[in-house]
Design goal:
The chain is α+β, with helices and mostly antiparallel strands. The protein is built from 9 helices and 8 strands. Strand 6 and strand 7 form a beta hairpin.
Length: 260
């Protein structure tokens, strides 16, 4: 009988918890102070204990429902609590403004000084703090540091490890979503390929293509696509611009013959 009651209590708790989560919605917001956005601000829902961190643009996203209390905290700013209202849920956006934290230090009085910098500097007591027993040499700058086990991740965003929307299992301490990481890497690569012709034309200049290579202005992007089999995209992003220029010069002769 006790076992049945325990199971029933557990089922009711899970049902209530699930119903509560289903009623929650994701809202976004921006944290700022004195007309500047603030990154790395901790945002915690004190009701469901979900948390996230604002990105470098001050943006964040978190699950909430009506009457939930959001707690904002950052070292340099005063803590702030916001109660979620119906208007917040309707707009699905929060504009959070934090107040800069000013620390007032106690007044310090110095005794035994004459006011003359020359005399007071001569009467400075001997430093009793032990000196460091190590030195740096210029050769130390060339030393190679140990590898970073997380080096394969560029610009790691702490939000992906704390925001339940980015974690499997609704943010219940699950593993980092590798699928999301792959999707972001793919989007980044596609964006780089899409922007490549525009960046290349901007860096080398219109005159280079029209005067030096004799490529018609309206054919420039088509010509760049024609040259991509020579791996100019990879060479360009590897900072081998001079090599890219030589390839473009070589291929322009063939391209112009084809176009004629």
């Amino acid at each position: 009988m006790k076992l049945k009651l325990t199971n029933l209590t557990l089922i009711v708790f899970i049902a209530v918890k699930s119903f509560s989560q289903e009623n929650s919605i994701a809202i976004t917001g921006i944290v700022s102070s004195e007309n500047k956005t603030i990154g790395d601000v901790h945002v915690i829902n004190l009701n469901n204990r979900y948390g996230t961190i604002s990105n470098i643009n001050g943006e964040f996203e978190i699950l909430v429902k009506e009457n939930d209390v959001l707690f904002f905290s950052s070292i340099q700013y005063q803590n702030l609590k916001i109660t979620i209202s119906k208007d917040h849920l309707k707009n699905k956006f929060l504009n959070i403004i934090l107040v800069l934290l000013v620390n007032d230090l106690d007044e310090v009085f110095l005794h035994g000084l004459t006011g003359s910098l020359d005399l007071d500097s001569k009467n400075t007591p001997e430093d009793t703090i032990p000196k460091a027993n190590f030195v740096f040499k210029l050769s130390d700058l060339k030393k190679k540091l140990p590898g970073d086990e997380f080096g394969y991740l560029s610009n790691v965003n702490a939000e992906t490890f704390t925001n339940p929307l980015y974690l499997r299992g609704g943010g219940q301490g699950s593993a980092y979503n590798k699928q999301l990481e792959k999707e972001r890497a793919l989007k980044k690569e596609l964006k780089k390929k899409k922007n490549f012709p525009y960046q290349l034309k901007k860096e080398l200049g219109l005159d280079f293509f029209t005067n030096d290579l004799k490529i018609l202005e309206e054919k420039i992007y088509n010509f760049i696509s024609y040259c991509e089999y020579r791996d100019i995209l990879e060479k360009y992003y590897a900072n081998n611009v001079l090599e890219v220029i030589e390839i473009l010069k070589e291929e322009s002769t063939k391209y112009n013959k084809i176009e004629k």
